[in-house]
Structure formats: structure tokens, C-alpha cells
Specification:
Elements: H1 2-18, E1 45-47, H2 50-60, E2 66-68, H3 83-91, E3 94-97, H4 103-110, E4 116-119, H5 120-123, H6 147-164, H7 169-193, E5 201-206, H8 210-215, E6 219-224, H9 234-246, E7 251-255, H10 261-270, E8 273-277, H11 292-306
Parallel strand pairs: 1-2, 1-3, 3-4, 5-6, 5-7, 7-8
Helix pairs in contact: 2-6, 2-7, 6-7, 7-11
Length: 309
């Protein structure tokens, strides 16, 4: 009885903060059945961070509970797992991760994950990080800013659920196809909205929008590298000040989950506006009622205004 109460309490906490059915799996059983709900009996699922959890929930629907490892408001790069979360990784039927992005999750998966692992880094083609940003030439993990790559992930998740729950295979695969179609529509909206802009240069707090820039022919100028905690050098800031003047940039974009201080300082010195782009690494109190699709469309609106499209 005590364990059931704990499980229900965690579900209420996370569903309120993130607007998505999230539960701690450890101690609640590994079959995917939510204690007391009587209706969720699909594959138990653990997702490392929000975009992965969103895909899992959309494809799994009311057949699955999704356990999100990165709590709302937490920078996913900085995630550390509790013993309870490590146990959840070991017990899940399906795990959605991106290897190389969150070392603590990689360690937990390597340490004893028994379920099917859907590794986004193996599903989609990852771009290299922007040269010269201090990230050692490794891959850029932020693939979810490209809706077409998210569509590829949705199809792979549908296949994983079909393998784990063959009786409902058709339903999972249909849900994956439906989600892929929605993402194709989003892609067309972005492509159309950004087709004709006065400037194609976008200045952001850190290098999180490379996939968006690559897909829609934008030039990204990040202040910091892939790691939002990295500090830009004075030389980098001086270089950016010259570039924004030359490229007719009107706006410096800050981001959710990242301190706006450096971006705001650069904007003030250059006499530019400040606006927000959401890298959609996780939800916050302010975006708890949003989802991936609405946040991407809000990003589109911000870019259209700033770049005079």
C-alpha cells in the first residue's frame, strides 16, 4: 500500500509540472501497468528527456506510461540520476535515449538495461557541432529541432512498441505514421514561413539550433557552444558584435533553461532587441501547457518577426 501511494504521488507531481503522463517506474512494476489506473498495460517506457518522451507518449498513447528522467525545468545536459531512476532504466521494456548527450543516462543503460533501447543517435543522422565553438568537433545532439528527424524517430519508436506489444502492433504503427504526417506538416509550415527573409542570420545563446538552421537555410551564430554552460571568450563576443552589424541582425535570442545574461549584454551593447527561442530540451512552469508542436510554431513566429520574413 505504501508503494502504491508513492507511485501515485510521483505521477501527480510530474503530470502537473509537465502536462504529460510521467511516472517513476521503479517500485511500480515493469509491466507498464500504472498502479490503480487499471487501463495502462502496454510496454513500460523510460525517456531520457522531453522530446523523446513526447514522441513516446504520442506513439504509445493511452497504452503506455512514460517515465521522464529529466525533470521539468532541469537542463538535460546536467542530468544526474537518482538510484530510483537508475532502477527504472533497468526495469523498463522500452528506453528512449540519445547516447553521448547525457553521460549519466549512458552509464545507467550500460549498467544493466534489459529492455529495448531506442538510441536517437543511431536512428537519425547527427550533424557536427559548429566548428570553433569549443566542443571538440563532436556531434550536435539537438536533432529534435528538425521535424523530419523527429518523424524518423517516431517510426522507430512505433516499431519498438510493436515488437514489445505485438497484439497492438497495428495501433502503434498507425500512431507513428500519424505523428510523422503531423511533423511533415510542421516542416512545410517552417519551410514556407522562412522562405523569404530579409536576413537569414540568427544569433542564439548557445549552439542548440543547428538542425533548424540546416533544414531551413539559416545562418546560426551561437554565443556559446553546444554546452550551454561554456563561457564565450571576449574575442568571440567582439566577433559577434561585428557580425550582427554586418548581417543586419535585429534580435539576439535568449533561451529557456539558459541564463540570458550574456545574450542580453551583447544585445544592449549592439543596440538590438531581445527575444526568446525555445530549444525544447524540456518544459518549464511557463510552458507546461505547451507541447513540441506548439513550441516549434512559437519559434517560427519569433524568427519570422526578428528576420523580417
Amino acid at each position: 500500500m505504501t508503494m502504491i501511494v508513492m507511485c501515485i504521488g510521483w505521477r501527480l507531481l510530474f503530470s502537473t509540472a509537465a502536462g504529460i503522463a510521467l511516472a517513476l517506474v521503479a517500485g511500480c512494476g515493469s509491466s507498464g501497468t500504472a498502479a490503480g489506473d487499471g487501463g495502462v498495460d502496454g510496454p513500460s517506457t523510460v525517456a531520457a528527456f522531453y522530446p523523446l518522451a513526447w514522441v513516446a507518449q504520442r506513439v504509445g498513447g493511452d497504452r503506455v506510461d512514460v517515465d521522464l528522467l529529466t525533470s521539468p525545468g532541469v537542463e538535460p545536459h546536467d542530468l544526474e540520476l537518482t538510484p530510483r531512476q537508475i532502477a527504472a532504466v533497468g526495469e523498463a521494456d522500452v528506453l528512449l535515449v540519445e547516447s553521448g548527450f547525457q553521460p549519466a543516462v549512458d552509464d545507467a543503460v550500460d549498467g544493466g538495461a534489459l529492455g529495448a533501447v531506442v538510441d536517437a543517435a543511431e536512428v537519425v543522422d547527427l550533424l557536427p557541432a559548429t566548428p570553433g565553438d569549443g566542443d571538440g568537433g563532436g556531434p550536435d545532439p539537438h536533432f529534435w529541432l528538425d521535424p523530419m528527424r523527429m518523424g524518423a524517430l517516431a517510426e522507430r519508436v512505433g516499431a519498438a512498441y510493436a515488437d514489445a506489444d505485438p497484439e497492438q502492433a497495428d495501433a502503434y504503427q498507425q500512431a507513428a505514421e500519424d505523428l510523422s504526417a503531423e511533423l511533415e506538416t510542421l516542416d512545410e509550415q517552417l519551410r514556407t514561413g522562412l522562405a523569404d527573409c530579409r536576413t537569414r542570420t540568427v544569433v542564439t545563446s548557445h549552439d542548440a539550433f543547428g538542425y533548424l538552421a540546416d533544414r531551413y537555410d539559416l545562418e546560426l551564430l551561437p554565443i556559446a557552444g553546444v554546452d550551454p554552460g561554456s563561457e564565450p571568450s571576449p574575442e568571440r563576443l567582439a566577433e559577434l558584435a561585428d557580425l550582427v552589424a554586418a548581417e543586419d541582425v535585429t534580435t539576439i535570442f535568449t533561451e529557456t533553461l539558459v541564463s540570458p545574461a550574456v545574450a542580453e549584454t551583447l544585445a544592449t551593447e549592439a543596440g538590438l532587441d531581445v527575444a526568446t527561442l525555445d530549444p525544447i530540451e524540456g518544459l518549464t512552469d511557463d510552458t507546461a501547457d505547451e507541447d513540441y508542436l506548439s513550441l516549434m510554431r512559437a519559434n517560427l513566429d519569433a524568427l519570422v518577426k526578428a528576420n523580417r520574413c
